Amino acid sequence: MRLCVVVFLTVASAISINALYLQHAPRIAGAAVQNFNPGTHEAVTTTAATAALPAKTPRARTDALADAGQAAAHQPASRSPAKSASAKLVKAIQRELSDRGYAAGDESGVPNLQSRAAIVAYEFDEHMPLTGEPSAPVLKSLIFGRAAGKGGPGPADRFERKQRLVAQVQQALAAMRYRSGPADGRLDAETRAAIRKFESDHQLKAAGRLTERVILELVIAMGRPFDADG
């Protein structure tokens, strides 16, 4: 009798161990499966229907993505580049400049270097900031400003006569390492030599003169206009 009880208990234990630990997890749809997560020491319940689904994004990554999205939402909208002057505007400026004796070239509607140099000369004569850019204020000044009815540009050495403008040119040349002397507004031999070197580097005739084309090239190189009044 005792032997039968021992045999029965042994068989029952073997069946229980086999069912609990040796058999594969059930594959029946909807059957619950207990998976042990060693990282959190927690049991995670899944089913055969959900076991094939992709794993969820870790919370840290989800939070990072959310933060990135919020940061992007608060970024200011990028400014679109300024629209170039229309061909109609450029053509009108070229026509008005030519009528007043400025060498603006053909009325092509294209703001080439010749037209921009003529704009620089006009801006200087009218005490405007030297930009060389075809703009509505330039056209308005040509039609309604002090130059209305006038003809012909100023004297050929008009830039060199302006001591404060010469000082600005000397500062620009020094910033680009063409000269090292003081910006005293004197167009001396050192300044002329620096201008010649600048002209040579920009495919201009190395004359050492402060012309509208040199002013324009300096404006382009610096990325900012000169002040015609100093």
Describe this structure in words.
The protein has about 230 residues and is mainly alpha-helical. It has helices at about 1-20, 50, 60-75, 85-100, 115-125, 135-145, 165-175, 190-200, 210-220; strands spanning about 30-35, 40-45. Strand 1 and strand 2 (about 40-45) form a beta hairpin. Helix 4 runs parallel beside helix 6 and helix 5 packs across helix 9. The longest helix has 21 residues, at about 1-20. The radius of gyration is 41 Å and the shape is extended.
Concise synopsis of the structure shown:
The protein is 49% helix and 5% strand. It is mostly helical and 230 residues long.
Secondary structure topology:
Layout: H1 2-22, E1 32-37, E2 42-47, H2 48-51, H3 59-73, H4 87-99, H5 113-125, H6 136-144, H7 163-175, H8 189-201, H9 212-222
Helix pairs in contact: 4-6, 5-9
Taking strands numbered 1, 2, ... along the chain, how are they ordered across the largest sheet?
1-2
Which range does the strand content fall in? 5-15%
Low-confidence stretches: 24-83
Helix/strand class:
mainly alpha
Whole-number radius of gyration? 41 Å
Please outline the major beta sheet: 2 strands, antiparallel
Give the end-to-end Cα distance, rounded to a whole number of Å: 122 Å
The topology string of helices and strands comes to: HEEHHHHHHHH
Principal-axis shape: extended
Figure out the total of helices.
Answer: 9
Mean pLDDT: 75
Care to count the β-strands? 2
Percentage of residues in helical conformation: 40-55%
